[in-house]
Amino acid sequence: MILRNVPRSLLRALGALFLCAALVTAVGCAGKTPGAARTGAPASPGTASPSDGARAVVPGWARGMATVRADALPQQAREVLALIDKGGPYPYRQDGTVFGNFEKALPRHERGYYHEFTVRTPGERDRGPRRIVTGSGGEFFYTDDHYDTFKAVLR
C-alpha cells in the first residue's frame, strides 16, 4: 500500500474531510444538472429565458449569452433581419462582409463563419455602432455598441 508510513489518525482525518466535501457537493448541487452547477444556466436546451424577461426557447449556440427576441429589437434591426432573409439588397457596401470576431466576443469559428450587416442608427452620419452578425450555422447576434457586447437574437 502506498500510504503505509502515514499515521492512521491522519488517514482517518483525510477520509473524514473527503467525505464531508463529497456530502457538501452532493447536497449543494442537489437537483441541478452538471451544466447548471458550473454556470448557473440550465444545461438542457429550450429552458432558459431571454434577458428581456419573456420565456423563449434558447438554442444551444446561444446558451450562456444575453439574448433578445427579434421582435424586441429596434425597428431598424428588424428591417435588416428581413433584408437578410430576402438576401438583400443591402444599403451599405460593407453589408455581408466577413466579420473577423477579433474581439472574441462570439464563439470561436474559422474565418468566414461570421458576416456582418449594418443597422442604421438614427442621428448618426456614418454607419453607427449597431450591427447584426450572422453565423453560418444559422446564428444571429445583435450589438449596439460596435462589437463590445452581443446578444443572441431569438427568432
From TrEMBL:
Residues 34-53 are annotated as: Disordered. Keywords: Hydrolase, Nuclease, Signal. The keyword Methyltransferase does not apply. PROSITE patterns: PROKAR_LIPOPROTEIN (PS51257). This is Exported ribonuclease. It comes from Streptomyces cirratus. Residues 1-26 form the signal peptide.
